[in-house]
Write a structure and sequence with these properties.
CATH superfamily of the largest domain: Phosphoenolpyruvate-binding domains
Shape: elongated
Strand content: 15-25%
Helix content: 40-55%
Largest sheet: 8 strands, mixed
Number of strands: 35
Radius of gyration: 35 Å
Oligomer: single chain
Number of domains: 6
Strand order of the largest sheet: 14-24-23-16-17-18-19-15
Number of helices: 38
Bound molecules: phosphoenolpyruvate, magnesium ion
Length: 915
């Protein structure tokens, strides 16, 4: 045989998981570092592939197996198939990556009528031997001979009933002997042949069965689900290992452990064990295992050995290990180890501790944590032990968990929120005018829209849970109820949202609050030491800015000013501005907004001092600030109706339940008041109709508004520069940046720049100071990418708005794509990823590269960043590092993720270039 298909544990390369499988490689490695592993050998994954290709075991394999069994015999002093001192083995599957429970394993192989007698002789324990035998016949029967488990279980249950016992452990040797005999009978009946007595025949059938289980339905489905391609794992290895028994008496035990506490990361002995038991008893939960600390009293010497085993495992693997062991007659054997799966706090804490203990380097401490895992840390989470079943599911639009009473409009949300109630706002979709409802609500649920719908973007910015596009829910705002099939959820009913999964539950599920703990701060400070990319925040309020700084943001990369327009004290002024019939009237409305905006910016600059704050001039189309057409029509209809009803009487708004539809000063109604209200609503309706656009996202928005209504941009620029002047006067170090959205030509920028220079001149004269700030543009249209060289003549910075740029490059909108065809595209591989989540390096990324090259050619020191949602996504951040952006900007809760991802990007940059 030319190919080497078998490696004994003393010889196999512990790093070669592709060839030996994860379990086999670890058994080799543990043996070679001197841990007490039962003797055995690995049959390679290549042997599996050859077997599956040729439908027969590779030539000479069985001969080789025999030679290796002989070696195991020599090491154990037992003999395979021997009447007096039999060697029993386990035959275990194990591919390159762990696929728990997907493939088959057989224990106690080597038992037959002869060796059974030997085992009884060897152990002096007939009960133990028959127990091992009946387990082996059933497992072998199922795995190697394809017999249904049920056939065995029926007999087992019948004997238990006959014996009048409830628990398996109450069966005595005679019962187990009877069961074994019945099981042998089952095999004869089901296969037409007696149970194989030849132990090598048993071994051959078992090896083939394990190989075959690689192509079993369970394993194939699992690989498809988790995208395990042949380059990740190709075939299963077979581990043949001498059996050791934890159930041979009270000097035997079996247990599982973690080298650190997987719930907290604390460096302590952690695990459970059972005296006189088999491994599967611990896992199956038949008996309650004891905490490992008790072993210190029960078997002090073995406890000490276990501590040493644990220390050796960590010192060697430099990773928290999840291990299994057995104590057979006072001797400790390590049966398995693998990297431990832990929650986010435990990963962070163990990273920091292992670095402090000198076990791992800083780089390793950072790289062992998947940045996305940190998401868990900054949002409330559902209590992991909850048992509730979801009633519906939508898109996970903004992570975190929240519960509260259902409300169906923003005003009620605000009223109830003020009264101290927890509320969840349910809408078909939200609009900027609902913003006060967002402030008051714990979470937002919409039945329409995607992950970039208004609700999703605003909720993410605020760090609130949001589920969008839950299309199975019919939201009836007028009846104040939501309907899911037969279920009616009414105002005041409590629901819980899990914005991380999109699942919706009826009733309250407790949540666990996030915390930014010391170890996380330490870890992220290390990340900053390595990262080239700076991490900025997309925030719009001083509170969120302070939060972002506390998470480690070193600037604001995007302040969407329209969010400020939506606050309760400004929206009426903004509406007046939109309704204004002339430039002069618009200027007057803007005059009222000016001091408010100036104060907003001043507070924002102060909160971020001394870091840069990028303020984007108004971006969304104007109609977004007005109520919808249907809503206005309904309100006008109602008002006309009320006018008829009251017939000149004084009626309070409350009696009519009209609180929401008229401005606050009107506490009493008379015809005059109603007429005024109708007139205003009609004016709004006319305006809404006038502003109607077929494609609002491609319409009159962004800098185009600034060109049509320069006075809006001028007011905003003045607010920014005066706020800057006030801060400078007070000695507060600041770095404002004025950013223009939706730019397509340098001419637009030049025009805005002129406004800026004029206002700058005025402000500098008035305040007697020189202002320091930058002027730049968003790059979110394809044309901006193609004209970057020209834009850079005017702009001192570029910020990629990859939300719009992705939409423009793909020519489809996120909402339509995600709700209609994108899942199909992803499932069938037409597109690898959702480009709105994962930056499309091949398309959008090429435009970015081109833009950067042209921009830096014109202006070598131009500052370039990204403020689209991709700025908080690790894989996209790696690309941003690769194309040498200066910063990424993301919502506050993603800042820690982005900081860690930026460090990963740097530490793994060579791999990226090669990939
Ligand atoms: C973008 O388009 O990427 C962007 C940040 O702007 P907005 O999401 O506000 O349109
Ligand atoms: Mg945009």
């Amino acid at each position: 045989m030319t190919e080497k298909y078998i490696y004994p544990f003393q010889k196999g390369d512990g790093k070669n998981k592709a060839l030996l499988g994860g379990k086999g490689a670890n058994l080799c490695e543990m043996t070679q570092i001197g841990l007490n592993v039962p003797p055995g050998f690995v049959i390679t994954t290549k042997a599996c592939r050859d077997y599956l290709d040729n439908h027969q075991l590779p030539e000479g394999l069985l001969k080789d197996v025999k030679a290796h069994i002989a070696e195991v015999e020599a090491r154990t002093g037992k003999k395979f198939g021997d009447r007096h001192n039999p060697l029993l083995v386990s035959v275990r599957s194990g591919s390159a990556i762990s696929m728990p429970g997907m493939m088959d394993t057989i224990l106690n192989l080597g038992l037959n009528v002869q060796t059974l007698a030997g085992l009884i002789e060897q152990t002096g324990d007939a009960r133990f031997a028959y127990d091992a035998y009946r387990r082996f016949i059933q497992l072998f029967g199922k795995v190697a001979l394809g017999i249904d488990d049920e056939k065995f279980d029926l007999h087992f249950a019948a004997i238990k009933k006959q014996a009048g016992v409830k628990a398996d452990v109450s069966l005595d040797a005679d019962h187990l002997r009877q069961i074994s005999e019945l099981f042998l009978q089952v095999v004869l009946e089901e296969t037409g042949k007696p149970f194989p007595e030849d132990v090598y025949e048993q071994l051959e059938l078992a090896i083939k069965a394990v190989f075959n289980s690689w192509m079993g339905k369970r394993a194939v489905d699992y690989r498809r689900e988790f995208h395990i391609t042949p380059n990740i794992a190709n075939g299963t290895a077979v581990n043949v290992v001498a059996m050791v028994f934890g159930n041979m008496g009270n000097d035997c035990a079996t247990g599982v452990g973690f080298t650190r506490n997987p719930g907290t990361g604390v460096n302590e002995m952690y695990g459970e064990y059972l005296v006189n038991a088999q491994g599967e008893d611990v896992v199956a939960g038949i008996r309650t295992p004891k905490p490992v600390q008790e072993l210190a009293h029960e078997m002090p010497d073995l406890y000490q050995q276990l501590v040493e085993l644990r220390n050796k495992l960590e010192a060697h693997y430099k990773e928290v290990q999840d291990y299994e062991y057995t104590i057979e007659r006072g001797i400790l054997y390590c049966l398995q180890t693998r990297n431990g799966k832990m929650n986010a706090p435990a990963m962070v804490r163990s990273s920091v501790d292992m670095m402090a203990e000198g076990l791992i380097s800083k780089e390793h401490a950072l790289l062992r944590i998947n940045p996305e895992l940190l998401e868990q840390l900054l949002h409330p989470q559902l209590d992991p032990d909850h048992k509730a079943q979801p009633v519906a599911q939508g898109l996970p639009a903004s992570p975190g968990a929240a519960f509260g009473k259902c409300v169906f409009d923003a005003d009620t949300a605000e009223l109830m929120g003020r009264a101290g109630e927890m509320v969840i706002l349910l809408r078909e979709e939200t609009k900027p005018e609902d913003i006060h409802g967002f402030f008051a609500a714990q979470g937002i649920l919409t039945s329409r829209g995607g992950k970039t719908s208004h609700a999703a973007v605003v909720a993410r910015g605020m760090g609130k849970a949001c589920i969008a596009g839950a299309e199975d829910i019919k939201i009836d705002v007028r009846a104040h109820q939501a309907i899911i099939g037969d279920l009616h959820i009414r105002e005041g009913d409590i629901i819980t949202l899990d914005g991380s999964t999109g699942l919706i539950y009826l009733g309250k599920i407790a949540t666990i609050e996030p915390s930014f703990f010391e170890e996380l701060k330490t870890l992220l400070a290390w990340a900053d030491e390595f990262a080239d990319l700076k991490v900025y925040a997309n925030v719009d309020t001083p509170e969120r800015a302070r939060l972002a700084v506390s998470y480690g943001a070193t600037g604001i990369g995007l302040c969407r000013t329209e969010r400020m327009f939506n606050a309760a004290d400004r929206l009426p002024l903004v509406i007046d501005m939109i309704l204004a019939g002339s430039t002069e009237a618009r200027r007057q409305a803007l005059e009222k907004l000016f001091p408010i905006q100036r104060e907003d910016f001043k507070q924002l600059f102060e909160a971020m001092s001394p870091y840069p704050v990028t303020v984007r001039l108004l971006d969304p189309p104007m109609h977004e600030f007005l109520p919808g057409e249907h809503q206005l029509e309904d309100e006008i209809k109602s008002l006309n109706l009320y006018k008829v009803m009251i017939q000149g009487q004084q009626v309070t708004l409350d009696t009519l339940g009209l609180q929401a539809s008229l401005p606050a000063p009107f506490t009493h109604l008379n015809e005059e008041v109603i007429n005024k209200a109708i007139a205003k609503k009609e004016l709004m309706l006319t305006k809404v109709k006038e502003l109607y656009e077929v494609n609002p996202m491609l319409g009159h928005r962004g800098v185009r508004l600034g060109m049509s209504y320069p006075e809006i941009y001028q007011m905003q620029i003045r607010s920014i520069l005066e706020a800057a002047a006030l801060c400078t006067q007070q000695g507060i170090p600041i770095l404002p940046e004025i950013m223009v959205p939706q730019v397509i030509t340098a001419q637009e920028l030049i025009k805005v720049k002129i406004f800026v220079e004029e206002i700058q001149h005025e402000v500098e004269c008035r305040y007697g100071i020189a202002l320091e700030f930058k002027f730049g543009t968003m790059i979110e249209t394809v044309r901006a990418c193609t004209r970057a060289g020209e834009l850079a003549k005017v702009a001192e910075f570029f910020s990629f708005g990859t939300n719009d740029l992705t939409q423009a490059t793909f020519s489809f909108s996120r909402e339509d794509a995600e709700n209609k065809f994108l899942p199909l595209y992803n499932e069938t591989g037409l597109l690898e990823d959702n480009p709105f989540e994962v930056l499309d390096a091949k398309g959008v990324g090429q435009l970015m590269k081109m833009t950067i090259e042209a921009g830096r050619f014109t202006r070598p020191d131009i500052k370039i960043g990204i403020c689209g949602e991709h700025g908080g996504h690790p894989q996209s951040i790696r690309f941003c590092h690769h194309i040498k952006l200066d910063y990424v900007s993301c919502s506050a809760p993603r800042i820690p993720i982005a900081r860690l991802a930026a460090a990963h990007a740097k530490l793994l940059e060579d791999d990226y270039r090669l990939s």
